[in-house]
Amino acid sequence: MTLSDEKYNGLREKLEKQNKWPNIYMFKFIMPADNKIMAQVESLFDDNATIYRKESKKGKYLSITVKDKMHDVEQVVAIYKKAEKINNLMIL
C-alpha cells in the first residue's frame, strides 16, 4: 500500500461517515490563471457540474469550487486521483 492509498483510505472513511450517496459534493482547487489548466479541471466533471471561479486580486491565480453530483465515494476518489495529475493544481 502506498502513502497515496493510505491518504485515500482515510478520505473514504470520512466520506462514508459524513455523507449519504448519491450526494452533491464540493471540490476546491487553487491554480494559476491558465486556460489550459482550467480546461483540464473542467474535463474532470460532467456538464451538470456547477463551477465557480474567483480570481486573485492581481489576477495571477484562480480559486475554483466545483459542485457536482457524486454517486459514491469511489467517484470522488477517482476525481481527486485524476486532479493530482494536473500540473500546478493545488487540491484543497
Rg, please? 14 Å
Give the count of helical stretches: 3
- Whole-number count of domains: 1
Strand content bin: 25-35%
The level 1 CATH classification is Alpha Beta
Looking at CATH, the homologous superfamily is ACT domain
CATH topology: Alpha-Beta Plaits
Question: How many angstroms separate the termini?
Answer: 23 Å
- H and E order: HEHEEHE
What does it look like?
The protein is an alpha+beta fold and about 90 residues long. The protein has a single domain (about 5-90), classed as 2-Layer Sandwich (Alpha-Beta Plaits). Helix content is about 40%, strand content about 30%. The chain contains 3 helices and 4 strands; from the N terminus they run H-E-H-E-E-H-E. A 4-stranded antiparallel β-sheet has the order 2-3-1-4, covered by helices on one side. A hairpin with a 5-residue loop joins strand 2 and strand 3 (about 60-70). The model has no long low-confidence stretch (mean pLDDT about 90).
